[in-house]
Amino acid sequence: DSGVTQTPKHLITATGQRVTLRCSPRSGDLSVYWYQQSLDQGLQFLIQYYNGEERAKGNILERFSAQQFPDLHSELNLSSLELGDSALYFCASSVGLDLSYEQYFGPGTRLTVT
Amino acid sequence: AQSVTQLGSHVSVSEGALVLLRCNYSSSVPPYLFWYVQYPNQGLQLLLKYTSAATLVKGINGFEAEFKKSETSFHLTKPSAHMSDAAEYFCAVSDPGGGRRALTFGSGTRLQVQP
Question: Measured by CB atoms within 10 angstroms of the end CB, which terminus of chain B is less buried, N or C?
């Protein structure tokens, strides 16, 4: 158990819908990273927040957005969903700002878009 | 842009045999390099990382990797495979420059360990 929690574990929704994925980092961790793992694209970094501020952006679509709240939990919002958005979405947390600090991954949320 | 190539999407070894998983990267400046392991239905777990200290890096579960700048490689090895090593392994490289916050992953290598 990494100490990072993600809810829900599974989500099934239809094309065009909007969903919110939630991540609670380990106690004391200030950074939250979001990743997408799909069969087509493999593992991709989406976005990083540190202490409430966006600090790095990867291959995140404009239909996707994220935020980190004052209690440091983070949410990833996916809208106008397409079949290709079906994937495993991971969050990871770390204590520091950059990758010299170890990231701890949550168990993921499996999103199925039908 | 940096990229990571993992040679061999599937590798099969016998229990007790040497494990060698290959990773080559391209980056304009020496990056941070990582190996992660993913067991079925689980998130990723860090095996080891290189952040410009010693070139031979020892990780958990008996794994190690050597950073070779001249070959732009960071291959993962373990002297003797165990059945519990069966999993998917990902090599990753950090973005170059001062930020070092974004990871680029390889496509993964699934390791099978035969009894």
Answer: C
What would the pLDDT profile of A5-49 be if each residue is shown by its tens digit? 999 999 999 999 999 999 999 999 999 999 999 998 999 999 999
Contact B103 A45 (CB under 8 A): yes
The backbone region for B73, taken as left when phi is positive above 0, alpha when psi lies in -120 to 50, beta otherwise, is beta
DSSP string over A28-76: T--EEEEEEEETTTEEEEEEEEETTEEEEE-S--TTEEEEE-TTS-EEE
DSSP B61: G
pLDDT, residue B98, reads: 53
**A94-107: pLDDT as tens digits:** 999 988 899 999 99
Which amino acid is located at A50 in the chain? Y
Pairing outcome for strands B73-78 and B64-68: antiparallel
Residue whose C-alpha is closest to residue A78's, from A64, A66, A67: A64
**Residues B101, A48: C-beta atoms closer than 8 Å:** yes
Structure tokens at B48: 């080891």
A101 touches B at CB < 8 Å: no
